[in-house]
Design goal:
Helices cover 29% and strands 35% of the residues. It is of the alpha+beta class and 101 residues long. Strand 5 and strand 6 form a beta hairpin. It has one domain: Conserved Hypothetical Protein Mth637, Chain: A. Strands 1, 2, 3, 4, 5 and 6 form a 6-stranded mixed beta sheet that branches. It has 2 helices and 6 strands. 26% of the residues are buried. The protein starts with a strand and ends with a helix.
Length: 101
């Protein structure tokens, strides 16, 4: 199950990234993290930017509101989405739908 945590500036959750995939998509769950496949290589932050773009498009938020809070150079990352409390509720629901929960 995807663990979505409250943060003073929004919400945070974990993702697991597979770079250099044939296409970019959200796979569902892997353990307690949302699994993302991105076609970008893990070089110079390209995979992180691809993850942010994929999540922004899927959740309907601006790329600038999403950041990789930790795990910049690893496959396991913590994502922070900056939002107000009203938007946090909608984002929680959307994340659960993406995770298939």
């Amino acid at each position: 199950m995807l663990t979505i945590q409250d943060h003073p500036n929004g919400i945070s959750f974990h993702i697991r990234v597979q770079p250099k995939s044939s296409c970019s998509r959200i796979e569902g769950m892997q353990g307690d993290a949302l699994k993302l496949r991105v076609s970008a290589p893990p070089v110079a932050g390209a995979a992180n930017k691809a993850c942010i773009g994929l999540l922004a498009e899927a959740l309907g938020v601006a790329k600038s509101s999403i950041e990789v809070a930790s795990g910049q150079s690893g496959r396991s990352k913590k994502i922070l989405i900056r939002c107000n409390p009203a938007a946090a509720s909608r984002l929680r629901q959307s994340l659960c739908e993406l995770a298939g929960v």
